[in-house]
Amino acid sequence: MEGAVVPPFALNRGIGSFSAGCGEAMTIASVLRESESVFGIGLADASAPWRLRVDLRLKKLLPPADSGPKSLIGAVRDICLGPGKRVRPVLAMLSSAHFGGCELAALDFGCALELIHTASLVLDDLPCMDDAVMRRGKLTLHRRFGEDTAVLAAVALLNQAYGVIAGDAAVDAETRLGLLVLLSETVGFRGLVSGQFRDLRDPEALRDELTLASLNYQKTGVLFAAAMVGGAMIAGADQTAQIRARLFANRLGLAFQMWDDLQDCVSTSDAIGKDVHKDDGRVTFVTLWGEKRTRAAIAETIDEALASVGDPSCPLALYALNLFHRAGRGG
Ligand code: GRG
To answer: Which ligand 1 atom is nearest residue 135's CA?
Structure first.
């Protein structure tokens, strides 16, 4: 397998050991396993104000709508300001607060992650990759603006992300440099690019649980890890805390990707705003394990994420739970 990266901590309990059995201690996440959603728990969605801050800041960090080239800027603003869940920026802000800093100090860093994430979605949707039709509730960018515009929009977004961090006045110069290194590793040869390449080219027949976990880490987990570790760095957290941040991100990222795989099988394009059944004929955790066991694994992986932050009622833990609560409603 080319460029395989085993995510640190990703398999600490052995994915193969998940079971849907009963009798273990009840946790909030185990309720998710039994009932598909956690409506009964009544979690308040405390992330709404943070998502709004991200949306407002993104508007400012992108070129103005009336600047040129008009259709390129229009395309970039359209996809970035569309209805994304803003998971990575919110995680970065909550991580900063969790490790002793403040949320807003990580706002620009989080927005930079959102720019990178959006660039990756635009590239992933192209005909030479996933050939997708719908994204964030609309036709994909290349279908509306052309492939040339979509490729250039993605490159511009990636470039903008590094510029945003380099010029982030809320973060000291040494930390900014560290964040730039972190993002370069996140995107490059051991991160998103490599994950996408392996996903496109590695033979399906060789995909087992370990390989899938490693692929998922490179495609999804790395940006979650960048959000958590970057947030901790901005808060001035020490290495031990950064390792805990990474552990949480790895478990949450894995659960999120498994959930994404599950939605591809069981949800509708209207509910999730993007294509479904793109994984038909491909190997995912859902095809390896079936729906029930995948749900059990998602719940157990969320539990592991929560255990890694210690207090299951801290804002970070509640956000993680809420994410799947909202996702359960197709949000
Ligand atoms: C050079 C940035 C760059 C990337 C090149 C194309 C590529 C390599 C990577 C794509 C990886 C990819 C699309 C992974 C899927 C990750 C995932 C679970 C996306 C869905 O994220 P959500 O649900 O989406 O957070 P929203 O729209 O809510 O933001």
So the answer is: 27
